[in-house]
Amino acid sequence: MSALVTGDAVVLGLQPAKLPSRALALAIDMVVVWACYLAVTVGLALATASLDDAAAMAVAVGSFVLVLVGGPIAVETLSHGRSLGKLACGLRVVRDDGGPIRFRHALVRGAMGVVEILMTLGVVACIASLVSARGRRIGDVFAGTLVIRERVPTGRGVGVPPPPPWLAGRFADVDLSGVPDGLWLAVRQYLIRMGQLDPAVSWSMAERLANDLVACTGAPPPEGVPPAAYLAAVVNERQSRDARRIVGPGTGSAQATAVQSDAHQGGRRSGHGGGSGGDQAVPGSPEVATPSSTKTQPTGAQPTGPGHGTPGATGFLPPG
Q1: Is the predicted pLDDT of residue 152 greater than 90, yes or no?
Q2: Distance, CA of 287 to CA of 31 (rounded, Å)
Q3: Angle between helices 199-217 and 227-246 (to 10 degrees)
């Protein structure tokens, strides 16, 4: 089963939700939605008793669309993919790349849900979820979304390494809208697993991903910056923008970097971070290299030693 990152691109290991948990979450949501619909219908029937049949029918259709269709769309948009049923079952709707959904995603899911869930009593949604490798219904396929499990053991989480301090905020003015979701997911999963790869293979993958990212953004890395550090800085910039959009303008790159660093250190303490379980360095402060943590740099990498510095807490070397 494929693992994903969270909506804030911090932790790897959230799994696609299974059909039973999704069905339970849907049942809870349907009970709440139908209760609200019945209450609204009774209230409107009493308020429009003096209207003719055509007007009463128009009001009934309007209440159906607003409550049974518009209600779930509004809830998923405002809660960023966590309706009442999903919150109770520990589920969440995210984009294919693990990022938070927006209104257009919730709109497509809600529109398709009328056919998949309301008109067919959920039969189509169940069949599609069983056929899909990641348990997606047709609305998820068209919207580019996925329902994942949020409640997983914290020890299994592995953090995306924070960007180097000398690259933080360097790409604040870069347009990231042209980067496809699949490339974001590939970059994030590479950053999380690069410590487990052979150095030469890791360097080659980083160069290829960096070239793809440059082709989409038009913003090449500064001279002498390793491709992995460039990838981490761009991913951190996108995460910071997502955080500002969700939490508010007060959340900047420093807060997002701190969140990434905490998750990364938590993954290292659990034995999955690719480093030793000893001293934990603070982002931005030098970290003393030990034999167990020193790795052979591939050809073209920045060497350690006088004039080049030592790896910081992020694991990236500054340009020479």
Answers
A1: no
A2: 54
A3: 50
Please provide the DSSP assignment of 69-111 as one string: IIHHHHHHHHHTS--HHHHHHTEEEEETTSPBP-HHHHHHHHH
Give the residues across from 286 on adjacent strands.
Answer: 312
Q: Are 2 and 148 in contact (CB under 8 A)?
A: no
Q: How far is Cα 157 from Cα 6, in angstroms, rounded to an integer?
A: 10
Q: What pLDDT score does 143 carry?
A: 92
Based on DSSP, count helices (H) and strands (E) in the chain, helices before strands.
11, 5
Q: What are phi and psi of 207, to 5 degrees?
A: -65, -45
- What pTM, to 2 d.p., does this model score? 0.51
Q: How far is CA 320 from CA 164, 166, 194, 302, 312, in A?
A: 14, 12, 22, 7, 14
Q: Which residues contact 47 (CB under 8 A, 6 or more apart)?
A: none
- The C-alpha R_g of the chain, in whole angstroms, comes to 24
Percent of the chain having pLDDT more than 90? 21
- DSSP state at residue 296: P
| CB 48, CB 55: distance < 8 Å | yes
Q: Looking at per-residue confidence, does 90 or 97 come out higher?
A: 90
| From 5-9, 94-98, 226-230, 313-317, the region with the lowest mean pLDDT | 5-9
Report residue 29's pLDDT band, with 50, 70 and 90 as the boundaries: very high
End-to-end alpha carbon distance in the chain: 41
Token pair, residue 90, equals 């520990």
H helices present in 144-252, as ranges: 181-193, 199-217, 227-246
Q: Which of 99, 105, 181 is nearest to 142 (CA)?
A: 105
Which phi and psi (to 5°) does residue 52 adopt? -75, 175
What residue type is 197 in one-letter code? Answer: L
